[in-house]
């Protein structure tokens, strides 16, 4: 997606050769015009899947998923919870995830009420690195009996191996920008 | 807002006499059609304020704020971070918040890059209870030199005192549904 790649080159900041900071438009401050263009692109790539629900994980995926849902006939969005809250059901699907940016493992949870075996679920997230969050979300979808119909990622860092993990699960992966390397503070797209 | 009140009566679950579970449409599964109606209503109530940015706090506020921004000419949305991440700037505005649902105190942070003294900021959140999160967000806006132009809340629990705290700060508060009590598992609106 050219608009997104341009924005990454313009405003992204490479730290070391593994972290890309895009907090000016993607995951701290959020550019709603850009999110709508991303939503249209996800729609174009997954329109053949008859998606019934979008699943993401807090926090950075939520805004992207909500705006994208408008391009899928306003289907419901569910976000997996990373932190226990007194208002979360006891009866949940759970999976373990390792966060690359936070450097720790935690559980993600989705109430059993909101995904069922008639759903075709599109998973959306801001980044794909090692694939741990995406695998956890696929796991949760499959526990519910629903179909994991696809994964839509905004920025894939292909050098961290997530794509292979997801393709081994047999789930279609579509990334709007794929970064092959970030050597010498320079982003190189696929 | 009648549509929202109807939905709370239809799908909200009262736990004890202080917790209202609305995770089927507001803060776990999210009803994007309802969010757009809420966004229009926020626009109607704050259109005289010439808002330049929307500020919320992760995680439940993000979807509401992103959809609402579309009714304010797609202005940027910033979400305050509750948890430290390696991709957050070191240079942040900070405030302390007590979470009613999570029963603990934590810091919220916003990078100094994304709010400045020319901004007129609308704060949006899903719930107002004791007002601690809203006060923390007002504090952050004022640290930046920006104007805290208003607070838009989806559900205010008036019996927990948040309104008084905010009005003492001199910030306009607009809540789409105001609950006066939840005795005997029944929601009573103002």
UniProtKB/TrEMBL annotation, chains A, B:
It is an enzyme of class 2 (transferase). GO terms for cellular component: cytoplasm. Pfam families: Pribosyltran. Residues 43-158 form the Phosphoribosyltransferase domain. Pathway: Purine metabolism; XMP biosynthesis via salvage pathway; XMP from xanthine: step 1/1. Its main location: cytoplasm. 5-phospho-alpha-D-ribose 1-diphosphate binds at residues 129-133. GO terms for molecular function: xanthine phosphoribosyltransferase activity. Gene3D superfamilies: 3.40.50.2020. Belongs to the purine/pyrimidine phosphoribosyltransferase family. Xpt subfamily. Homodimer. This is Xanthine phosphoribosyltransferase. The lineage of its organism: Bacteria, Bacillati, Bacillota, Clostridia, Eubacteriales. The gene is xpt.
